[in-house]
Design brief:
heterodimer, A: two-stranded antiparallel sheet, 2 strands, elongated, B: alpha+beta, eight-stranded antiparallel beta sheet
């Protein structure tokens, strides 16, 4: 099954992993210390993130360091930005309508 | 007001938040009264909302249809009202009606939850769209994206022309 970035961010533990490795590359052991789950569970999340091409691995001696692919994360931003724009267009029209309704209410109070 | 914020709380959901400089009583009316809703829920200038029928009581049905008056293209949404808490919350189902645009979208209804909360004369509106599946969500956004981009650019053109 093909994986994509939305699957990557659908899980709260994976979102937390993303937040951690966004700051610095980390080993699975170091990451596991931040969670109540087992090292195996963290490895499974890292495998999914790797399949989504959101993280890259770097071997240093016996350790594997995981770091975040910032460019890939931006895809999510772009996608959401389009969605946000659709709504913002409508909301700007609602702003205008609400200003009118407020004005009308004021005028009726004066009468 | 700050522009709308969109986020992805889960694999099948999209959450959009926005604040409005008006008391909740007015914002609620803008959502509940067809004559008011069709004035803001339209999009770019060439689009109108010829069908805006709604019975906003629990179990009531609604039908919204938009039409591009330039090329006659139409699409819409229909659904059923599941929950209404005046001035606070409305929950309804939503099914895409492809009109004459020839684009399909997942047949399973999505669940729309709109919550309203007022503080200091500002009303915060949060809209959660829960799709039946992740595939439905991605398709809905992919379809809406093209239209939405067009809407935004047309709107921008209008604003720029007035400057």
């Amino acid at each position: 099954m093909k994986r994509d970035i939305f699957q990557a961010i659908a899980d709260p533990t994976r979102r937390a992993i993303i937040a951690l490795i966004a700051l610095q590359a980390m080993t699975p052991n170091a990451l596991a210390e931040h969670f109540d789950t087992s090292r195996q569970a963290v490895s499974k999340h890292l495998r999914i993130l790797t399949e989504c091409e959101l993280v890259t691995q770097e071997h240093q001696g016996r350790e594997i360091y995981y770091s975040l692919e910032i460019e890939k994360m931006k895809e999510i931003d772009k996608w959401l930005e389009q969605y946000r724009k659709i709504w913002e267009t409508r909301y700007e029209q609602l702003d205008i309508l609400l200003a009118e309704l407020k004005q009308k209410e004021k005028e009726e109070l004066k009468k | 007001m700050k522009p709308a914020e969109a986020s992805l709380p889960s694999d099948t959901e999209v959450l959009v938040k926005r604040s409005f400089d008006a008391p909740v009583t007015l914002v609620w009316r803008a959502y509940m009264e067809p004559d008011l809703l069709r004035r803001w829920c339209t999009g770019p200038p060439s689009w109108s909302m010829p069908v805006c029928e709604m019975d906003m009581t629990v179990g009531g049905q609604y039908q919204w249809r938009w039409r591009n008056d330039e090329d006659g293209m139409e699409f819409g949404f229909t659904g059923e009202v599941l929950e209404v808490i005046p001035h606070a919350k409305i929950v309804h189902t939503q099914v895409f009606d492809p009109g004459n645009m020839g684009i399909g979208m997942g047949g399973e209804p999505s669940i729309i939850t709109v919550t309203f909360q007022e503080g200091d004369g500002i009303t915060n509106v949060a809209t959660s769209i829960k799709y039946a599946s992740k595939a439905d969500r991605d398709e809905a956004v992919a379809t809406g994206m093209t239209d939405g981009m067009e809407m935004s650019y047309t709107q921008l053109d209008k604003v720029l022309a007035e400057m």
